[in-house]
Design brief:
alpha/beta; protein-glutamate O-methyltransferase activity; protein-glutamate O-methyltransferase; three-stranded antiparallel sheet; CheR_C; seven-stranded mixed sheet; Rossmann fold; EC 2.1.1.80; CheR_MeTrfase; binds S-adenosylmethionine; 10 strands
């Protein structure tokens, strides 16, 4: 690879021709994904891969697939869910209507985990809870609305559901898939939303926005946190991913509730 061999033409092609906003994401992440496709196509340089990409539509699909950040699961990072459980008990005790936003919800397992948690805990009044779940990806939302998940060995849904103790009433098991029960789906509404360019929402008691910020470059993180802040009620809660951080310029806007589980509270205006 010569020093003039750069990833830039590939990223520009993906942004302009394939309509995937590479400029939102951090370069280390993009480089890892492009490099993995380069290995798969035996391309020895970015330039070589770029010429493959331009002429091969199947490879364009493969790259888009590799770039979509869709790793998710039910009850991902269980200790975080213990914290969310405590907050949902408190919120439903104090308020007759509790609105939660699962932002960047991927294929729906995160908002369905919220709903299952609410249904499974006697100390949480699930009838008070409504959940809005959003993502930028229409494909992810289609799976989410369907509520059916393939149970592959590498993606063991039963162990993900261990958090619930006895999950059987919330899922129906088929041969190689799991279907989420109607009672769990009922409080969840799905909608497409872009966290960087989309408008803020309002009136949310909790925003769960996990495992997207690690892929986003610093410049685009601040608009995401502004969107979350403006969507929260006074004293509303924000939960971000375990390895994610609030940009320095936004830290004073949130108070830490549980540093390890990355749970914060927005004290409100002024
Ligand atoms: C790794 S998944 C995280 C899913 C879930 N929150 C979790 O923690 O398991 C990241 C999700 O962010 C979505 N995403 C990427 N950019 C986005 C944006 N600008 N606005 C909204 N969602 C976005 C992707 O489509 C993907 O579904």
């Amino acid at each position: 690879m010569s020093t003039s061999d750069t990833i830039q033409p590939i990223l520009e092609f993906v942004e302009e021709e394939l309509s995937f906003a590479t400029s939102y994401y951090n370069e280390r992440y993009l480089d890892r994904r492009v490099s993995s496709r380069m290995r798969r196509t035996d391309s020895g340089s970015y330039a070589e891969y770029y010429s493959v990409l331009k002429r091969d539509e199947a490879e364009q699909e493969e790259l888009l697939d590799a770039l979509s950040i869709n790793v998710t699961g039910f009850f991902r990072n269980p200790s975080v869910w213990e914290g969310i459980q405590t907050l949902l008990r408190k919120l439903t005790d104090e308020k007759s209507s509790v609105r939660i936003w699962s932002a960047a919800c991927a294929d729906g397992r995160e908002p369905y985990s919220l709903s299952m948690l609410a249904h499974s805990d006697r100390e949480i009044d699930e009838s008070r809870i409504s959940i809005l779940a959003t993502d930028i990806s229409e494909d992810a939302l289609e799976t989410a609305r369907g509520g059916v998940y393939q149970d592959l060995q590498t993606d063991d849904i039963s162990s993900q559901l261990d958090f619930l103790g006895r999950p059987t009433q919330y899922i129906t098991r088929r041969d190689d898939s799991v279907e989420v029960a109607e009672t769990v789906r009922e409080p969840v509404e799905f909608e497409r939303h872009d966290l960087i360019n989309g408008r803020s929402k309002s009136g949310f008691d909790m925003v769960v926005c996990r495992n997207i910020l690690i892929y986003i470059n610093d410049e685009h993180k601040t608009p995401i946190f502004e969107t979350i802040r403006d969507s929260l009620v006074e004293d509303g809660y924000m939960v971000i991913g375990k390895s994610e951080t609030i940009p320095i310029g936004m830290r004073q806007e949130f108070e830490s509730v549980n540093a390890g589980d990355k749970t914060y509270q927005y004290p409100g205006g002024e």
